[in-house]
Amino acid sequence: MDSEIKKKLMKKLAEIGDNSDDEDTFAKPLSVSQESTRTSTRTRDRLIEAERQLAMRGEPSKTSTRTREKLEAANTELAKYQSGLSTSTRTREKLADAERKLAANSTRTRERLRSANEQLAEIKTTTRTRKELDNVEKAIKTARKKETSSYTLEVFKKKQELLANLLDQNKHADVAFLVDCTGSMAGYIKQTKDDINKIVSKVTEMFDNKLRVAFVGYRDHSDGFMRIETLGFTENIEEFQTFVNNIAATGGADAPEDVLGGLEAVINLAWSSASKVVFHVGDAPQHGEQFHDFGSNGDSYYSVEPSGLHVEDLFKNMKQIGLKYFFGKINNSTDKMFKVFQELGGTEMVKAVDMSNPNLLETRALASITATIEGTLSFTVDFARTMRVHGTNLSALSEVSDGGKTLKDYSISDAEPDDAELTPLEKVHWLTCLIGKLDNIREIKHHIGTINHRWSAKMVKKAKQPFSEGAQRISYHGQKMNYADGGRNEKIVLKEFKHFGSGRDRRTDYIEIMETQCVAAFLAMEFNKLAPTGSKKINFIVVSVAQVFDESGTPNYYNVEPLLPEYAKFKKWNTNFGAVNIDEQLIQAFSHWTYDITGGFLVVVDLQGIERSNEYGLTDPCINCKEPRFGSTNMGEVGIQEFFRTHKCNSVCKTMGLKEITLLRKAEKVVKQILWKV
Questions:
Q1: pTM to 2 decimals?
Q2: How many CB atoms lie within 10 A of CB 623?
Q3: Radius of gyration in angstroms for the set of CA atoms belonging to the chain, rounded to a whole number
Q4: What gap in Å lies between CA 84 and CA 37, rounded to an integer?
Q5: Residue ranges of the alpha helices (H) in 346-392?
Q6: How far apart are CA 512 and CA 138, in angstroms?
Q7: Which of 54, 207, 296, 605 is a good FRET partner for 201, with 20 to 30 A between their CA atoms?
């Protein structure tokens, strides 16, 4: 049988011709077919696969087309007779060479495969989920188109006129200093007198407003006519200082004092401004077991309140007036009392500040007052934004009911939680965005509506309670699992709106915040290229949107960003309402530059974050823009005017050749106010 096979193969190979390469390749193995190892099916398959792979990578074949055809015919003949073809030395070398070339490409192939697997791991969604995310993107595009429609722009301009006048009315404030005036409080009384002029000057410079101040000093029931001493609201700072200078630190028989009597006197003041602040400083609690743990031996009025006052009624009245109450804590004896106050008034109304040293009074009072005014102005912006236009009548605006606004249930926890205190791992839909490279930065306004979005999936943990709050949002500690980075957990901050209800806490609100920070980060990157040599960099941290579903299937949203390690040193340089808290030249020049580089289209403000040795790490900016973009904090042209109302061009502005327009803006504002009144 072997002899017959050999004859047929020799006949077939004779047809190949006198090609020396082919003879060397095929004749020699046949002449020693009895002694050589026969080629298995696997060997032939490897050779064919190796040559196929080389052909796909553009490797030139060393065998002619005709030869390959005859090789294929020979192999077919071999298969027919179920015989083996011995592999020559040259064939084995060709196979080894092919495998070496495949191995050379394997590293790159493995890297591409790993990258592909990582991208697949980023988001493994069901068909239904992909459809849902596609619908989200469609809704976003529809909203963007609506933002720039001619009708929407006209409504936005009309609301701008309304906003300008509402802000002018609501920027004023009444501040009552409620101070324990017993013997241990002499240093705090003197500090109030010494600091009041600086406090008033700084507030009025920030907000270009009127600030009325009042003073209520309280002691105890045993102090007779000196139990309560009151100065009503006044704009005359000298009058305030003279009154406080005549207050003596005296009285107070036992440890507790007549705190409720002081609160009653505060309620009876003639409050009238939009922002109403009570700044209370005291080192002793109210009488009664409800407010302290001294026991009956340490309290002369432990069981009965001599004036018949009830704390529940007092805080109900304070709420109705719209007071914001800040308690300056001096020691721990007042903790139980403050807890009662906060339970009655709520966390939005009742807050504690550190007053362990009299020297803290200026900074703590100033922060409390400015936070209250900013909260009022923020509410004003939100109010103007939600005003409804009736049909096509742009002159007809009506108030939208705020009855659907509900504060979420939370309490502030300052301590950073450990792993056991975080919620279990949850898979969330994760949205990021990016602005592509622009040939001309001044054209950015034409690209805002085409910011690129990318969805993925992440695993996160979140603290049960927030660690801080602002005028609109609360912030939680959290962790993001980075499996692609060896499973290292990244510390993050998850931020959500404090209120829910109709037109609030929506997905679009969170996306607008993300896009706002994306635009601010892009502009900062360009600014860094042009800033004076040696300047610190201005960088905004990356913000994403997380979509989490609760047990009922309802989506909840958070803005997510990396945790700033130095968050305890958080600073705020300027605000959305023109206030300059810290006059850092580079920061203020950046805000001015954003207006200049966009041709007056927008200005980036509300700059806050961490200062490091070589950079400013910023977050949560606001963008005042001439179009209705960037969420509810966008004050439009009004906000732009507010920035230039207080901005003073500095050396950085001049070095960068920025235009001095502050005086022009002030003149324009005066003209508009006159026209409005006419």
A1: 0.67
A2: 28
A3: 38
A4: 8
A5: 361-385
A6: 15
A7: 605
Which residues are bridge partners to 461 per DSSP?
479
Instruction: Compute the C-alpha angle 70/72/76, nearest 5°.
Output: 115
pLDDT digits 0-9 by tens, 584-636: 999 999 999 999 999 999 999 999 999 999 999 999 999 999 988 888 888 99
Query: pLDDT-based confidence at 81, cuts 50/70/90?
Result: very low
Residue 669 contacts by C-beta under 8 Å, 6 or more apart in sequence?
Answer: 641, 645
pLDDT at 444: 82
User: Vertex 495, ends 563 and 554: CA angle to 5°?
Assistant: 135
Considering only CA atoms, which of 427, 426, 429 is closest in space to residue 133? 429
As a whole number, the mean pLDDT across the chain is 80
Could you give the C-alpha distances from 33 to 28, 39, 67, 85, 591, in angstroms and in order?
A: 9, 10, 21, 7, 86
Return d(Cα 450, Cα 238) in angstroms, integer. Answer: 57
pLDDT band, very low/low/confident/very high, at 399 (cuts 50, 70, 90): very low
- Over residues 532-590, the pLDDT tens digits come to 999 999 999 999 999 988 888 888 999 999 988 877 788 899 988 888 877 899 999 99
What is the spatial distance between Cα 670 and Cα 216, in angstroms, rounded to a whole number?
38
Cα–Cα distance, 429 to 456 (Å, whole number): 6
Separation of alpha carbons 249 and 553, rounded Å: 60
Closest C-alpha to 67, from 3, 20, 122, 117: 20
Q: C-alpha angle 274/404/383, rounded to 5°?
A: 35
- Which range (115-119, 138-142, 261-265, 489-493) has the least confidence? 115-119
- Burial class for 550, CB neighbours closer than 10 Å (0-12, 13-18, 19+): exposed
SS3 state at 157: helix
Spatial distance between the Cα atoms of 558 and 515, rounded to a whole number of angstroms: 14
How do 537-540 and 602-605 pair as beta strands? Answer: unpaired
**Helix-helix angle 237-245:186-207, to 10 degrees:** 170
Classified as helix, coil or strand, 211 is strand
DSSP 471: S
Nearest to 380 by CA among 168, 173, 212, 210: 168
Measured CA to CA, the distance from residue 184 to residue 181 in angstroms comes to 8
pLDDT at residue number 35: 39
> What is the token pair recorded at 162?
């309304």
pLDDT score for 485: 52
Residue 592: CB partners within 8 Å, gap ≥ 6?
A: 603, 647, 649, 653, 658
Number of helices and strands (H, E) in the chain?
A: 19, 23
> What is the average per-residue pLDDT within 522-538?
95
Helix (H, G, I), strand (E, B) or coil at 548: strand
Amino acid identity, position 378: S
Q: Check whether 129 has a pLDDT greater than 50.
A: yes
* Angle subtended by helix axes 636-646 and 662-677, to nearest 10: 130
Please provide the size of the chain in residues.
678
Residue 83 contacts by C-beta under 8 Å, 6 or more apart in sequence?
Answer: 5, 38
324-329 vs 275-282, strand pairing mode: parallel
Q: Retrieve residue 317's tokens.
A: 């009245």
Helix (H, G, I), strand (E, B) or coil at 317: helix
